[in-house]
Amino acid sequence: MGKYIIEGGYSLSGEIKVQGSKNAVLPLLAATVLNEGKTYFHNCPKILDVYNMLNILTSIGCTIEWDGDVLIIDSSDITTHIIPEKYVQMMRSSIILLGSVLGRLKTVKISFPGGCSIGTRPIDLHLKALKQMNVDIKDRHGFIECSTNEIIGNKVSLDYPSVGATENIMLTAVLSEGITTINNAAKEPEIVELQEFLCEMGAKIEGAGTDTITIKGVNKLKSVEYRIMPDRIVAGTYMCAVAAAGGEVLLKDVCKEHLNSTITKINEMGCFTKEFEDSILIKAPERLKSLDLIRTQPYPGFPTDMQAQLMSCLVTADGTSIIAETIFESRYKHVAELVRMGADIIIDGRIAVLKGVNRLNGAEVFAEDLRGGAALVLAGLGAEGKTIVNNASHILRGYENLEKDLSLLGAKIKYSSD
């Protein structure tokens, strides 16, 4: 499972480039199934989730090739509609293949997804929408089987602005007959990225980033070359790393518009930030300030994917902070490990009350999920002594060069596969 070994107490300085977006690239990889040609990706992060998705694409007939840092996918010949269960169980986001394979072949068989256990993420919103688009759905022994003679566009209203459901509906509708309208659609930047990518391939979609997305079905897509946007969660993680460890760092290749809610909280904690065209400078104060209330919300609110990392900063802030996790009910699994390091945290349902302590102490801790694992690494950077973060495979799902990037900034951190 691997582990990170961190010697805390070293401030960070220098500059690093932010990797391509994990949450954007996975639906884009799924979308290549719709294209009966080649796709060339630039800035694709080399992370575990990407490799798992590429394994799935290979298993259904795609050809994968790396030419330096360029990822080339040839989806001319899709040989099966069955998604291998072993890969689906590795990550929940694999459910996004439901829409793309169905859109291409008009049939798909996929198991219910696995991945980080941060709470129930039911796919009933996905399936309810597909039924409205003339898709027959059967649930058999843990597998979802979808089939249709023709995908027909329809008006779909989501009960909740689910990112995954929005993406699956978009992918299903691209090659459909007629027009599909998604009401109460998710507004995340990754939705906009998916629209832009699909439109580059020849799809007709508009409205991404708003409540309403409209997809007009087309007959065929074309080959495309595309550069993946920077990862806003990785950028936010590195900002929190500076806040937790101290120092001054320039983050390059970022989209600052995607980081507004995170930057706001970073500034409220007393950090200094300066925004440039595609970079952000962050400087930490001697001690962070507490925050009265942080509530996770769908975009453009504060992202649930940044909750754990921000908590690693606030546990040593001056005063008491409150976090309300409104998205996932089981996203406090890192709390017990932070307490092991000396944090003072009380959990009451979805509310976390943090009383700032002067300093954390290094300890051996265990990552239970991707973002919680990253938060433990950040805690180790600011702690006194040695911290060992076990189960590092969770973190490798979303961070390409975490230990290398932090080492470049002066952190004492190494990865061990033992």
UniProtKB/TrEMBL annotation:
Binding site for UDP-N-acetyl-alpha-D-glucosamine: R92, R121, P122, I123, D124, L125, D305, I327
Keyword Transferase tagged: yes
SUPFAM superfamilies associated with the record: EPT/RTPC-like
Gene3D superfamilies per the UniProt record, alphabetical: Enolpyruvate transferase domain
Enolpyruvate transferase domain: residues covered: 7-406
Top-level taxon of the source organism: Bacteria
GO CC, any one term: cytoplasm
Keywords, comma-separated and alphabetical: Cell cycle, Cell division, Cell shape, Cell wall biogenesis/degradation, Cytoplasm, Peptidoglycan synthesis, Pyruvate, Transferase
Active site annotation, chain numbering: C116
Major localization class: cytoplasm
Enzyme class: transferase
EC number annotated for this UniProt entry: 2.5.1.7
GO MF entries: UDP-N-acetylglucosamine 1-carboxyvinyltransferase activity
Matching InterPro entries: Enolpyruvate_Tfrase_dom, Enolpyruvate_Tfrase_sf, MurA_subfamily, RNA3'P_cycl/enolpyr_Trfase_a/b, UDP_GlcNAc_COvinyl_MurA
UniProt pathway: Cell wall biogenesis; peptidoglycan biosynthesis
Residues where phosphoenolpyruvate binds: K22, N23
Keyword Transferase part of the UniProt annotation: yes
Reactions mediated catalytically: phosphoenolpyruvate + UDP-N-acetyl-alpha-D-glucosamine = UDP-N-acetyl-3-O-(1-carboxyvinyl)-alpha-D-glucosamine + phosphate
Modified residues (2-(S-cysteinyl)pyruvic acid O-phosphothioketal): C116
One of the GO BP terms on file: UDP-N-acetylgalactosamine biosynthetic process
Compartments it resides in: Cytoplasm
Record function comment: Cell wall formation. Adds enolpyruvyl to UDP-N-acetylglucosamine.
Family stated for the protein in its record: Belongs to the EPSP synthase family. MurA subfamily.
Name assigned to this protein: UDP-N-acetylglucosamine 1-carboxyvinyltransferase
Originating organism: Vallitalea guaymasensis
Taxonomic lineage: Bacteria, Bacillati, Bacillota, Clostridia, Lachnospirales
